Amino acid sequence: MAINQTSTLGSEEAANIAEAGPHGGKLATVFSAVALAFSFISFYMSALQGPELEVYVPPAIHYGRDGGGDTELFAIPITITNSGARSGAVLSMELEVQNLKTNATKRYYSAFLGEHPRDAASPNRQFAPLSIPGRAVFSETVRFYPVGEALPRLVDAQGEYAFRLQLNTATPPHPSLIDRLQGRTQPGPIQFQMTLPWMSDQHLSFRRATIAMHAKDWKPAAAR
Predict the structure, then answer these.
(1) DSSP H helical segments within the chain, as ranges?
(2) CATH second-level architecture of 53-223?
(3) 146, exposed or middle or buried, with CB in 10 Å at 0-12, 13-18, 19+?
(4) CA 33 to CA 10: how far, in whole Å?
(5) Which among 113, 114, 109, 122 has a CA at the least distance from the CA of 71?
(6) How far is the C-alpha of 48 from the C-alpha of 186, rounded, in Å?
(7) What is the mean pLDDT of residues 60-89?
(8) Where are the domains of the chain?
(9) Using one digit for the tens of pLDDT, what is the confidence trace for 141-166?
(10) In angstroms, rounded to a whole number, what is the distance separating the alpha carbons of residues 164 and 194?
(11) CB-count exposure of residue 71 (10 Å: 0-12, 13-18, 19+)
(12) Is the separation of the CB atoms in 74 and 145 below 8 Å?
């Protein structure tokens, strides 16, 4: 009798195990698929994600003149962030400025890096394409000079001026499958407005100094 009971219990356990087997296999498969998905996402974010560039400007920039006072320039501290995993290349920058008093507009290009030198004999650092590594930040002052003829100058008096800044980035001539799936595009332009609080031809032309332009409602911390 005991032998028959033991045999019956063993059969029931075997049946339960056989019944749970397929469910356990399915659960293991689901966990494996989730782990594989997380691994792929992690690898994509760390190695495959294309460059995602964004540009920022501070609430204060500088206006100056070069070439004996005929050539105006804008010295703008620029920060570029890359939230992607792969490096991005900035080939050039374009700046369009509008005089809100006269509605005249003028285009400028990224000519030099660094602040406007007070000494005309100082060497200039030519702007060259920038490589922004993945998950990195680039910060530098960029000096923009007029495209084409320097005269007539756009900035003629104190007042409000509107800016539109565009980055021109490198795109592969033969994009990979990842690039096509991501739909890589040029970063969108940013627009901002600055106030020129005063104007002095002597200060700009003969002293080779600059005049700070600032966002409309911005004040330096020391003045608060």
Answers:
(1) 2-43, 177-182, 201
(2) Sandwich (2.60)
(3) buried
(4) 34
(5) 109
(6) 18
(7) 95
(8) 1-48, 53-223
(9) 999 999 999 999 999 999 999 999 99
(10) 11
(11) middle
(12) no
Rounded-to-5 percentages of helix, strand, coil across the chain: 30, 35, 35
Nearest to 120 by CA among 66, 200, 63: 66
Q: How many whole angstroms separate alpha carbon 66 and alpha carbon 122?
A: 12
- 179 versus 162: the higher-pLDDT residue is 162
* CA atoms within a 13 Å half-sphere pointing along the CA-CB vector of 151: 4
Joined tokens for residue 164: 């539109």
Bridge partners (DSSP) of residue 66 are 71
User: Concatenated DSSP letters for 19-62?
Assistant: HHHHHHHHHHHHHHHHHHHHHHHHHIIIIIPPP-EEEE--SEEE
Take residue 115 and report the two structure tokens written for it: 């602040």
Contact at 8 Å (CB) between 199 and 157? yes
CA pair distance 224, 216, nearest whole angstrom: 15
Token pair of 76 as six digits: 């703008």
- Kindly report which listed range (36-50, 131-145, 160-174) carries the lowest average pLDDT score: 36-50
Rounded to two decimals, the pTM is 0.77
Output the six-digit token pair for 17.
Answer: 């195990």
Predicted confidence (pLDDT) at residue 221 exceeds the cutoff of 90: no
The overall average pLDDT reported for the chain is: 83
